[in-house]
Every structure is written in structure tokens, then in C-alpha cells.
Amino acid sequence: CSQRARRFEPKKEAVDLSVIISLGCCENMLFGMGNPLLDISAVVDKDFLDKFGLKPNDQILAEDRHKALFEEIVKRNKVEYHAGGSTQNSVKIAQWMLQKPHKVATFFGCIGKDRFGEILKKKAEEAHVDAHYYEQNEEPTGTCAACITGDNRSLVANLAAANCYKKEKHLDLDSNWELVKKAKVYYIAGFFLTVSPESILKVARHASDKNKIFCMNLSAPFISQFFKEPLMEVMPYVDILFGNETEAATFAKELGFETDDIAEIAKKTQNLPKENTKRQRVVVFTQGKDDTVATVGMVTMFPVLDIDQNDIVDTNGAGDAFVGGFLSALVQEHALEECIRAGHYAANVIIRRVGCTFPEKPDYH
């Protein structure tokens, strides 16, 4: 059953947020865990791209030949640093949408004990995110270099320390686990399945046992293709699943859904086995400029905000921004429709700017 919707009665269609206190947001209410990266943006020339074998508009993982790139790019003029990585971007956007109080969002991830790690801590603090990093000496802080030429961005990610998160050395510590218990809504991008699936499971089971809301993201086609086993181990605990149309199609193929219809994939995903039966799973699939598909009882289509193609600067952070906006409404007990509206707004702001950056305050009502 599919329909277009602008309005529907919150009583019937609202995500069940009865577990969330109705006194508004408080510190550490939203918990995120993932791969923290320091985003380093700089304008470069064609010679720089050629030197490191980069295409003008691309996204790659760093290889040995790119190691010198990260030290060289910081010597350029007008280097900008931002706290990055998919989950950290989303909780940062959620905090920006909420504005006050500060530190509504907690974030866990692994960094190195180095200069980039110090910058990342400072940037997370400036974004008013309560980041508690596991710091180690084996690997340097993860970085993502954005090499800008004209309107193009060539992204080179070096996960490094982000790959080194250890459950027993960080998540299991009493002081850190207390922060997990304090939260009411949890969000982890699928990328973290490649790092610490056991950490994800511990958080997901806690959320399920305490009837809190656990959200996850399919993140990229390769997660469903090559990390299907840990993904499906977590899936019974997922209350809200995010993804885009490409990720949804790959997920459907891997699970043998035998359909490429996005609404049908959402419905089948909603009906996968679930531990906490007190709340039906919500599935939210974005489709770029096309309608967002969401399940809540029935499959519903939500039109995105109109934007002139000439105003689109960079779509890289759009998915993270959508989730961040959605989470900012979710922690305020808003109905699903309102969560999606907030997600659409945040994504619309971010695609007008370079990187996952935003103005000082949202213009959202």
C-alpha cells in the first residue's frame, strides 16, 4: 500500500518515543559510535592531483602512495579542518539543528595520540558534541583529504586509527558505559561493522532490552555485499534503518528479495525478524532528488525540498545530514513525518556548501 503524504495523524503514525522524557532534550540523550576522521580541505592544482594519481571528482581509500599527501596538503594556503566521518557528521548535524543544550550528542570512536587527534578533539568540542575518543599509539588519527580544484572535490580517506576501536578498552569501561545507558536514541552507521561489530551488538542489545531506539544505516553497497553476516546479526535490534536507493537495491539483492521496487524493498526490510516487538521497525530510504520512502504501518512517499541544480555545490554529506536532521527531531519525540522534514531541511542546507559544513544556526521552524 503506497501513498503520497503531507500530513497524517501523529497518534497513528508517530514513532513510539514513549521512552523519551518529555522535558525536552538533555545532555547525552543521543549516542553515536563510528569512525572519526579529521576532514582536511584545501584548494590544490592539477599538478598536485597528478602527483598523487587523483581524479578531479572521486572518492578513494588511501594507499601507500598517498601517505605524503596528508602532510603536504596541510602546508597549502587556507586549509580547513572539520570533525568528520559518517556517524560523527550525523550527530554533529543533529546537535547543530538542536542548538541547545550543548552535548545532546555523545560520540565514541578511535583516534591517535597526535596533532591531528588534538585538532579533531577541538573541532568536536566546537561542534558541541560530547566526544569520548579511545586514544592509542599504534595508528595515527584517521583523515579524509578533500583536494579541491574548481567545483570538483577529490576525496582520499585514510581510516588508520578509526580501524583500531577496542570494545574491551573503551566501550566496556564503566564511565563510558554509563554514557551509553544515559542515551535514549542510538545511531551507528554501517561502516562501523568493518571495525567492531561486537561493540555495535552490545549497544543494540542494550537499546532493545531497555525499549530504547536503535538506528542504523546501510552506509554503502559494499557493507551489504561483504559484511552481510555482521549486518544481519545486528538487524533484529534495528528500530530505524536508513539507506539510499543504491544501498537498498544491493541489500535487497543480497537478501534475495527479488524486487527492485524501492517501496517493496522497504516493506520487506520492515518485516525482517525483530527482537523488540513493542515497536515496529521503520525503514527510511532516500533517493536523491526523488521522494524519500518510509515505512510506518504502510509505505509512504515524502517529497524532498525543491532546489535549483545550480545551487548544488557538493552532495557528499547529504546522506549524513539527512540522518542528523532526522535524529534531531526524533530525540524531541516528533512524528515520523516531522523527522523526515527535518532530515530534508538539513540535507538541503549541506548540499549548498563544500563538505559537511553548515551556517552558524539553522533557519528551521
TrEMBL record:
This is Adenosine kinase. Its EC number is 2.7.1.20. It is an enzyme of class 2 (transferase). Its main location: nucleus. PANTHER family: ADENOSINE KINASE. Residues 48-359 form the Carbohydrate kinase PfkB domain. It comes from the Eukaryota. Monomer. The active site is at residue 320. The lineage of its organism: Eukaryota, Metazoa, Chordata, Craniata, Vertebrata. The keyword Transmembrane helix does not apply.
